[in-house]
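If you are new to this repository, start here. Below is one unmodified record pulled from the training split, so you can see the exact layout before writing a loader.
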Amino acid sequence: MRMMSKESSSKIYHRAECRYARKIYKRNRVQMNWEDAEWKGYRPCKCCDGGKFLYGLEEGEIEYFAEKYNMDVNLVGQIIYVRTEVGCWKIVYKISRQKFILLHRNYVKGRISLEDVEKAPYHRQTDMSEAGSIMKYLKYIQKHDEFKQNMPADYRKLPQDTRRQKAYYRAAQKRDERKSARRLDNLFAIIERKEGIKELSFC
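And here is the target side for that same chain:
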């Protein structure tokens, strides 16, 4: 739910935790969900509707969790970066959706610097839907990377009991198929180079 003043000419809605929401006189206070507020012509408050403000609401829990699971969690502007031993993550707040989205960077060998994390290309983590909580993503990241660290060399040994385990199995299967295709391409390239050398030797 969002809060606004029925007497306000600026037509701005706030989260209940916003300092500006607390200044609204009780007699003027109106509550509704953000979609209805926008339909009525209200717009989000720049103070309380962003990654920085929402990070502050969960900061204590975030810091405790990050220390417990050896994560680096950094707020840079309105973006939250998460670094673990096996990957980099980016949590971005989409004001148009009033939700966070999660992005991931693959193929990270060891923890890298915050500067490099900011420059890195990311892809959307499609098996994780939009969320209203940063902690929901941190718990997902911890489970995801723990699984990745303990993943067996042969993907066929992976469990397939839950929907998520089946998704990981299919992803690992596709990675293995791509690796096999690359190995085959490299083998053909080597053979072609050797054949070329033989042809030149007879000229």
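Two things worth knowing about this chain: The chain is about 40% helix and 20% strand. The first strand starts at residue 2 and ends at 5.
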